[in-house]
Design goal:
489 residues; alpha+beta; FAD/NAD(P)-binding domain; 18 strands; globular; disordered C terminus; binds flavin-adenine dinucleotide; Kynurenine 3-monooxygenase; kynurenine 3-monooxygenase activity; EC 1.14.13.9; flavoprotein; FAD
């Protein structure tokens, strides 16, 4: 059986291990961290994640879907169709379950506390360093020996880099000709907090996505199985620095902007959290190709880290594993399979990366716009009439396995149809007015002049509608909206 070496035992690396374990390959996974199953606290990104269709399909292929879904909380959305929901799951638990599942196969071996340093692409090998602590405690001033931190090379039929957004493997490929890479940090960072259970019950409604949009900063909350909520504040680093720099500032900020959440989070928890953790940056990474030589492929965040505003980072990474497994089963040859994988997957990865960035803009403020809500309702209306052919963008991304690039093509066709409906509407309106004008023995210009005169009268207080219309600012401190705007990630 061939050997696959996987860099990183995070979400995507661990799932890949399950896929190859199932195929009966020899699997070696090198992970920088200690075994998270033995750790008290695991440092890292978001505590919980929104699992949707693409992720579920990949978990189903390795027999884990029902178990994982059962461990989560179903989150429904008002714009959704019956039966459509995402599942809020605990990152650590999910990661642990996949490691344990993969390890059940005796041909799978995890090497924790092993850092992948680089890839030696001339010899098609991975360079790994053992960073485990030596069993003896070095006495003061004593250097650790080379043997404690040995570097060694690994050869494999296939190498899969799943070592995350700051991938060491990807970094060592940067000097290759025709390797495209781009990276963007957005101006927002995030801090995670917790709402505890209240009298052993959820303190907020559990099956909805809670969102407090406040223009350029936003608070969201997602329920956990243990009746707590993970609450995340997304704000520009400027805002953190100016308004959340001291414990008093943070409390005032939360009290003024999110009074209901402030009560549930509690003063002490907010100040302790902000003392303990710094706002974390959010990065978006695109690269191409995703496959190199005859045996190396990038997957998950190593290939396409994205901002977490479409709830798709992990889902897309999980779908990577499924897409690659399907291609490998079909083609057989490793070199051809990785090239085909890169051919189909790069454009999809770029597309969801862009969609996530677009949703970042939406989440900031667009949800408050009536045109945004109108479009959502219009989409759902058309979907109820043509359920197979008119699927809203969010549903195609979240509740289908339509390739991301096709999702965007379909959306463009929908936009064209809407524009032509609007055009048709205007044409009809125009001909109705023309008929009216004919009946009144007036020209269209006469009608337009008459309309303008009426408007001037109203603006001068002559009318009782329109003249006093005001723009209402977002009410500070208003409660959360129970909506989903693409979830997270
Ligand atoms: P990672 O999870 O980062 O795992 C990489 C692994 O590689 C880690 O275990 C790391 O220790 C290891 N590693 C790193 N470097 C080395 C090295 N040199 N040698 C060996 N091992 C190494 N996605 C969703 O689908 N839904 C969501 O709701 C969602 N919410 C999110 C919220 C936030 C705030 C953020 C930041 C992200 C969110 N995401 C979400 C995205 C999701 O977290 C990532 O897409 C996902 O974790 C990618 O998995 P990965 O295995 O590729 O990378």
């Amino acid at each position: 059986m061939p050997t696959v070496v996987i860099a990183g035992a995070g979400l995507v690396g661990a799932l890949n291990a399950c896929f190859f374990a199932k195929k009966g390959w020899n699997v070696q996974i090198y992970e920088f961290r200690r075994d998270i199953r033995t750790m008290k606290h695991v440092q890292g990104r978001s505590i919980n994640l929104a699992l949707s269709q693409r992720g579920k399909s990949a978990l189903e292929a390795v027999g884990l879907k029902d178990y994982i879904v059962d461990q989560g909380v179903a989150i429904r959305q008002p714009y959704g169709q019956p039966g459509e929901h995402i599942v809020s799951i605990n990152r650590r638990h999910l990661n642990e379950v996949m490691i344990t599942q993969a390890e059940k196969c005796e041909n799978v071996k995890f090497f924790f506390e092993h850092k992948v340093k680089s890839v030696d692409y001339e010899n098609k090998k991975l360079i790994v360093q053992n960073i485990s602590q030596p069993s003896r405690i070095p006495t003061f001033g004593q250097k650790q020996t080379h043997q404690d931190h040995q570097e060694f090379e690994i050869e494999a039929d296939l190498i899969i880099a799943c070592d995350g957004a700051y991938s060491a493997v990807r970094r060592s490929l940067m000097t290759l000709p025709r390797f495209n890479f781009s990276q963007e940090y957005i101006e927002h960072g995030y801090v995670e907090l917790n709402i505890l259970a209240k009298n052993d019950e959820f303190a907020l409604e559990e099956n909805v996505f809670h969102l407090w949009p406040r223009g350029h900063f936003t608070l969201i909350a997602l329920a956990n199985k243990d009746k707590t909520f993970t609450v995340t504040i997304f704000a520009p680093f400027d805002e953190f620095e100016k308004h959340m720099a001291t414990p008093q500032d943070v409390l005032q900020f939360f009290q003024e902007n999110f009074p209901d959440a402030y009560e549930l989070l509690g003063e002490q928890h907010i100040s302790e959290t902000f003392k303990r953790v710094k706002p974390q940056p959010l990065v978006s990474v695109k690269c191409s190709p995703h496959a190199f030589f005859d045996n190396l492929v990038l997957m998950g965040d190593a290939a396409h880290a994205m901002v977490p505003f479409y709830g798709q980072g992990m889902n897309c990474g999980f779908e990577d594993c499924l897409v690659f497994s399907e291609i490998l089963d079909k083609i057989g040859d490793i070199g051809e399979s990785i090239r085909e994988y890169s051919r189909v997957r790069v454009k999809d990865a770029h597309t969801i990366n862009d969609l996530a960035m677009y949703n970042y803009e939406e989440l900031k403020d667009l949800v408050n716009h009536s045109s945004y809500k109108l479009r959502k309702k219009f989409d759902l209306f058309l979907n109820s009439i043509f359920p197979k052919s008119w699927i809203p963008l969010y549903s195609m991304v979240t509740f289908s396995r339509i390739p991301y690039s096709e999702v965007v093509e379909r959306r463009k066709s929908q936009d064209k149809i809407i524009l032509s409906i609007l055009h048709e509407g205007f044409t009809q309106l125009y001909s109705t007015i023309q008929k009216m004008a004919d009946k009144l023995n007036m020209s269209l210009d006469d009608i337009i002049r008459l309309k303008k005169k009426t408007e001037v009268k109203r603006e001068n207080g002559g009318g009782n509608r329109g003249g006093n219309r005001k723009q209402f600012p977002i009410k500070k401190g208003a409660g959360a909206r129970k909506i989903i705007v693409g979830g997270r990630g």
